[in-house]
């Protein structure tokens, strides 16, 4: 990674620019960083929460996963949760998400009255922030719309600045963890008798 510095010399960071064609992909970079982290903070304005598909291996060291959303449509989330729970290929991810909520590893807050740009994630170990990703957080290929989807992976002060700004946003959000857990549990109960193979 090369040093990037603005004209004033502030916030110089080491960074790598990715797009939707990069190899390894943004999804792979994200998973690799998560696997080396003790905590992960994600601020995304609009997200399909059921798209959080990190594997057990990628989350094996993570003790705190905080997700800040700009909005969460309950009807859409319930429909997605039901679709995931009934799909044997994706059910493991839904159950993992529920386990993370129930064990207190995953916390979800919503901040509908504030905004930020771009979306970003901060990875930290026991000594503090190590890396941050700013920009596109779309993991699936191809992306939902044509055209480039850029993201920057950085460390150093770039990670520290992201951690500082995330804490400011996090304090302004309200806790949606019980609501998200309740919707997932309801989806599992409702579809329990209709899950194929069970």
- How is the largest sheet built, in terms of strand order? 1-2-8-7-6-3-4-5-9
Task: Name the shape in a single word.
Answer: globular
CATH topology: Endonuclease, Chain A
**Main β-sheet, in a few words?**
9 strands, mixed
Q: Look at the structure and name the CATH superfamily.
A: Endonuclease Chain A
What is the distance, rounded to the nearest whole angstrom, between the alpha carbons of the first and last residues? 49 Å
Task: Return the string of H and E elements.
Answer: EEHEEHHEEEEHEH
Could you say what the CATH architecture is? 2-Layer Sandwich
Query: What is the percentage of strand-forming residues?
Result: 15-25%
Mean pLDDT: 85
Q: What level of helicity do the residues show?
A: 25-40%
Unreliable stretches (pLDDT < 50, length at least 5) are 1-9
Number of domains: 1
Which CATH class applies here?
Alpha Beta
Radius of gyration: 17 Å
Number of strands: 9
SS class? alpha+beta
Query: What's the helix count?
Result: 5
Question: Could you walk me through the main structural features you see in this protein, from its secondary elements to its overall organization?
Answer:
- Mean pLDDT is 85; it is low at 1-9.
- α3 packs across α5.
- The protein is α+β, with helices and mostly antiparallel strands and 198 residues long.
- Strands 1-2-8-7-6-3-4-5-9 form a 9-stranded mixed sheet, sandwiched between helices.
- It has one domain (15-193): Endonuclease Chain A (Endonuclease, Chain A, 2-Layer Sandwich).
- Helix content is 33%, strand content 24%.
